[in-house]
Design a protein that fits this description.
360 residues; alpha/beta; Nucleotidyltransferase, domain 5; 2 domains; 7-stranded mixed beta sheet; 37% helix; binds adenosine-5'-diphosphate; binds magnesium ion
Length: 360
């Protein structure tokens, strides 16, 4: 029987630790257990304070590292309790609090030593820095997994992960894979919603549908140099920040119109990536929390009229678990001494084994 791996993911939205216990058997993904542990508002505030540079002193960062290590270990232990045997390894992405590949660093919190010690399971962390050391972006890392599990000889397809930041993987049937961060996924939508409502996000994009898109303003946002920059490229919340948005608004807009425009911004940057680089894409498979945003999905569909826009559920993995599965897969790559990065995606000078292995 194929060995089981645990994947743990907490993305830039800092909404939850998502975990899966999964095995990979000849291209088949067999999910044995899933666990999503919401991140408490107070923990999320500490994460965003450090992300935004408001409280990034070493003591605050290290204390957060300890608390996140426990959150990751808690999630892993709940999964392990439902398995017949210990998994072979845990792959923990960690919590990104800074991503500056151009300066040679990216920072993910969550200690592999801690998680390995608490769970008794070898744990792989720090997946991104080896790629950055080779001159790469260190991101996105999910395309190698998408290619392995979702690649097709019969059709050009794209996988789009809509987290805080959105990224695409373009899988042409007869050419090499590419992929990059398209820009904001949910981050600005979440921020703007929270500025004007109680609650965490605009469920199904319903509020966004009450607004009208200001096309001139949308065009202004789309003129940001990131969107036309050639790949490889990756980005984070330090670039697509609250300030990035506020600096582009006059302050006289109706809040719901801004939400509608942000929905179109995410949709347009995703659709452009596909139209410009994989014009014959037959199917686009969405994953990540943004795949639950019905209005956003409809906006992407409207911009890609000749493409079937669906979710990864059709490929056998529910959208919420794709990234966690990717880090379980990357842990397996690490244990087998196989590369995890795709130089055509990240721009690294070569493929390499990713991650640091911590023994319990
Ligand atoms: N029903 C929904 N309607 C609209 N947005 C949703 C819904 N469910 C989840 N989301 C969005 O998905 C985000 C979480 O997505 P996730 O893939 O976990 O992102 P990340 O990888 O950045 O943590 C939430 O912050 C929210 O914006
Ligand atoms: Mg999340």
């Amino acid at each position: 029987m194929a060995p089981t791996f645990i994947g743990l993911m907490s993305g830039t939205s800092a909404d939850a630790v998502d975990g899966v216990a999964v095995s990979f058997d000849n291209g088949a993904v067999n999910i044995q257990a899933t666990q999503s542990d919401p991140i408490s508002p107070s923990l999320r505030e500490r994460i965003t304070d450090i992300m935004r540079g408001r409280d990034d002193h070493l003591d605050a960062q290290a204390a957060l590292d300890v608390d996140l290590s426990h959150a990751f270990a808690d999630c892993a232990e709940k999964l392990i309790a439902r398995l017949d045997a210990l998994p072979q390894a845990i792959g923990c992405h960690g919590q990104t609090v800074r991503h500056r590949p151009e300066k040679g660093f990216t920072v993910q919190l969550g200690s592999g030593a801690f998680i390995a010690t608490r769970t008794g399971v070898p744990t792989v962390t720090d997946f991104r820095s080896a790629d950055i050391a080779l001159g790469g972006q260190g991101a996105p890392l999910v395309p190698a997994f998408h290619q392995d599990l979702f690649g097709s000889d019969e059709e050009d397809r794209a996988i789009v992960n809509i987290g805080g930041i959105a990224n695409v993987t373009l899988l042409p049937k007869d050419a090499s894979v590419s992929g990059f961060d398209t820009g904001p996924g949910n981050t600005l939508l979440d921020y703007w919603y929270r500025e004007h409502h109680e609650g965490d996000w605009d469920t199904d994009g319903a509020w966004s549908l009450t607004g009208k898109v200001d096309q001139a303003l949308l065009k202004k946002l789309l003129s940001d140099k990131y969107f036309s920059q050639p790949a490889p490229k990756s980005t984070g919340l330090e670039y697509f920040s609250h300030e990035w948005l506020k600096g582009r608004l006059s302050g006289n807009e109706h809040p719901q119109d801004v939400q509608a425009m942000l929905r179109e911004l995410t949709a347009a940057t995703i659709a452009d990536a596909i139209t410009n680089r994989l014009a014959h894409a037959r199917t686009v498979y969405l994953c990540g929390g943004g795949a639950q945003n019905k209005a956003l999905k409809d906006a992407i569909r409207a911009l890609l009229p000749n493409t079937d826009v669906t979710s990864t559920a059709r490929l056998g993995i529910e959208p919420q678990w794709v990234e966690a599965c990717a880090f379980a897969w990357l842990a397996r790559q690490r244990l087998e001494g196989r590369p995890g990065n795709l130089p055509s995606v990240t721009g690294a000078s070569r493929a390499t084994v990713l991650g640091t292995l911590h023994q319990p």
